[in-house]
Amino acid sequence: MQAIRAARLFDGDQTVLTGDPTVIVDAGRIVSVRHGAAVPAEADLVDLGDATLLPGLIDAHVHLAFDAGADPVGGLAARDDAEVLEGMRAAARTALAAGVTTIRDLGDRGYLALVLREEFARAPAVGPHVLAAGPPITTPLGHCWYLGGEAEGVEGVRAEVRAHAERGVDVIKIMASGGELTPGTRSHRSQYGLDELRAAVAEAHRLGLPITAHAHAGQAIADAVEAGVDSIEHCTFLTEDGVEPLPEVIEAIARAGVVVSLTLGTRPGSTPPPRIAARMAAMIDLFALLRKAGVPIVCGTDAGIGPPKPHDVLPHAVGALVSMLGWSPAEALRTVTSLAAGVCRLEHRKGRLAPGMDADILAVAGDPFADPAALLDVRAVFRQGHRVR
Fold first, then answer.
1. DSSP label at 190?
2. Are 322 and 311 in contact, with CB atoms under 8 Å apart?
3. Separation CA 177–CA 171 (nearest Å)
4. Alpha carbon 326 to chain centroid distance?
5. Are 192 and 149 in contact (CB under 8 A)?
6. Domain-wise residue ranges, the chain
7. How far apart are CA 261 and CA 48, in angstroms?
8. From the CA atom positions of the chain, what is the Rg in Å?
9. N or C: which end of the chain has fewer CB within 10 A?
10. How many CB atoms lie within 10 A of CB 82?
11. Which GO BP terms sit in this record (predicted)?
C-alpha cells in the first residue's frame, strides 16, 4: 500500500484545487483520497511536497507509428515493422514521461499498436495504457492509404470493420474526408458518402465498438453525424480556401451528443503548415461556436505527424485551450482527464482521482490552475501505482 501526498489535488472534475491531499493506493487502484488526514501505518509514504496531484493525462488522438519528423510518411515507409515498433515504444515512453498515462492511437501500420497494448498491460511502468484503432479505414489511395486500411463501397467498408474487430481493436477510425498528410487527397472534400458511413457505424456498433470519423469537410462532418458516429476528429469545416462553419450541422452535433476531438497543441516555437496557419483565426472562432452550442469537446493532439507534434505535446494543448480559446484551466484539464476518459470508454477506470479508479497519477510542481505551464514541470508519474522512472 502507498500513500501519495502533495500540497494540492485536481480530481479530474472539480473547479477548484483541494489542499493537503493524500491518495491511498493498493494493488494498482485508488483506495481513498484523504485531505489533512493521517497516513495509514501500513502504507509507504511518498511525500511530493509542494506539488499538485492530477489524474494521468489522456491523449485521445495520437499516431505512435509516425516519428514527428519532417517527413513522417517517408520515415515510416523506410522502416520495417520491427524498426517501426521500436520507434513506437520510444514514442509511448516519451508520452508517459510527460504524464500521459493513456493514449488512443488512431492510425498505425499493421496493427502494431496492439502489440504495444499487450506489452504495456503486462508492465505498466514501462508505457501508457494504449487504445488501438489499427489502420484507419480509408478509400483506395485515400487519406493514409499507406497504413493498410483501404476499403471501397458499403460491403467493403463493412468487411473492413469486421476485419479490424477480429484483430481486437478498441475503436474504429474512418476517414470521412481527405487529409493534409496524404498527397492526392483534399481535406475539404469527402471521401465516403452517407451510405458507407452508415454501414461502418452499424457494423462497429453491432460488434460493440465505438467509431470515430476523421472529418475536415463540412459535408463529411454532416454525413458522419447523420450516420451516428460516436466522435469526430478535427471537425474544422475546411473549404478550399477557408473555414465555413455550418450552423445547422453544429446544432446537429450538439443535439446528437457527438464528441468533437480538437487536435490542438504544438511544440513552442513551431509554426503550422501555411495552409493551416492561414486559417487559424477562423478555426479559433469555429471552436468558440462549437463550445457555445454545447458540443462535447475533448482534446487530442495528432502527435507524431510532424515536428510541431512530438509525442509529449499534450500539456501544451491544455495551455492552448486557456491562452488561445479562453477556457478556464479546470475546463481545459477536464478535456484531457475525465472527459477524455469518457470518449475512450474508460470513465470507470481513468480520468479521475477517486476510489476504485486506476492509480494513474501525475504530480507537477506549482499550481496548474494559476498557470497551465506547471504541467510541464513533472515531479512524478504513476501508472497503476507503479512510479515511472
1. B
2. no
3. 18
4. 21
5. no
6. 2-55+351-387, 57-343
7. 33
8. 20
9. C
10. 9
11. pteridine-containing compound metabolic process
Output the DSSP codes for 289-340. HHHHTT--EEEE--BTSSTT--TT-HHHHHHHHHHTT---HHHHHHTTTHHH
Average pLDDT over residues 28-38: 93
Q: Determine the average pLDDT of the residues in 368-382.
A: 97
Q: Say how many residues make up the chain.
A: 389
Pick the CATH number of 2-55+351-387 from 2.40.70.10, 3.30.1120.10, 3.40.50.300, 2.30.40.10: 2.30.40.10
- Alpha carbon distance 278, 59 (integer Å): 26
Cell of residue 358, nine digits: 486506476
What pLDDT digit, counting tens, does each position of 202-225 carry? Answer: 999 999 999 999 999 999 999 999
**Burial track 167-181 (b if 16+ CB lie within 10 A, e otherwise):** eebbbbbbbbbbbbb
Angle formed by the axes of helices 280-292 and 247-256, nearest 10°: 50
CATH number, span 57-343: 3.20.20.140
Local confidence band at 388 (pLDDT 50, 70, 90 cut-offs) = very high
Tell me: the pLDDT tens digits for 249-272? Answer: 999 999 999 999 999 999 998 988
